[in-house]
Amino acid sequence: MGITMKSFLWTILLAVLCAPHWVFAAHPADNASAEEMSHGTVAITADFRVPELSAELFVDAMDGYNLQLELVHYKIIPPIKKLMNSAPKPQLEGHAHLYINGVKIQRVYGHNLHLPAKLFKNGINTITISLNDHNHATWTVRGVELQATLTMNVGRKPLVLNHYSASPILKSRPSNR
Fold first, then answer.
1. pTM, whole model, 2 decimals?
2. Parallel/antiparallel/unpaired status of strands 52-59 and 92-100
3. For residue 67, how many C-alpha atoms fall within 13 Å in the half-sphere facing its CB?
4. Shortest CA distance to 145 belongs to which of 47, 51, 14, 18?
5. From CA 102, how far away is CA 149, in angstroms rounded?
6. Range of the domain at 49
7. pLDDT over 90 at 163, yes or no
8. Is 18 within a domain?
9. Phi, psi at residue 33, to the nearest 5°?
10. What is the pLDDT of residues 56-115, one digit of tens each?
11. SS in 3 state form for the chain?
């Protein structure tokens, strides 16, 4: 009883799609090219509530996709001195890093982002957003990096195959940005 290439590929695809969320939870830099610098991690202190992160992806009518971040207990701002004051902060602040297929694409300073189609290959792709301090270290809670990952399939429906968040938004209460 021989196995065909087609059935082998279907088995691999099924294994990837059915894998638990934590399988894809490694920091993208772990898989990125040598040019990607690791800035380390920093633990969130007990002074702050743990940020909650969710990401949604939508097809853009003209080109590519639109990524929308929902954040609770986190102020996403650029590292501009006049925006960052030294007074005690009511919530954690910083920016995010965007990775596509394990490669760092850019820093993120807002809730909405356009992602051109040229950033993606045909088939399965991953988009990961990590929450970072202004020294670029990734925020962690009990050793777990705060990030969200979407697994998507370009040109197929459904577009998004899997949502993962290390700190998901609890929908039982209204969110505050």
1. 0.75
2. unpaired
3. 29
4. 51
5. 11
6. 25-165
7. yes
8. no
9. -70, 170
10. 999 999 999 999 999 999 999 988 876 666 666 777 899 999 999 999 999 999 999 999
11. CCCCHHHHHHHHHHHHHHCCHHHHCCCHHHCCCCCCCCCCEEECCCCCCCCEEEEEEEECCCCCEEEEEEEECEEECCCCCCCCCCCCCCCEEEEEEEEECCEEEEEECCCEEEECHHHCCCEEEEEEEEEECCCCCEEEECCEECEEEEEEEECCCCCEEEEEECCCCCCCCCCCC
- Per the document, the length of the chain is 177
Residue in 95, 96, 102, 98 with CA at minimum distance from that of residue 34: 102
User: Is residue 138 a part of any domain in this protein?
Assistant: yes
Residue 20 has pLDDT above 60, yes or no: no
Q: Which residue has the tokens 């051109």?
A: 116
Task: Assess contact for 173 and 76: CB atoms under 8 A.
Answer: no
Tokens of 65: 């996709």
- 160 has a pLDDT exceeding 80: yes
Number of domains observed in the structure of the chain = 1
pLDDT digits (tens, 9 = 90+) for 123-158: 999 999 999 998 899 999 999 999 999 999 998 999
Question: Domain for residue 12, yes or no?
Answer: no
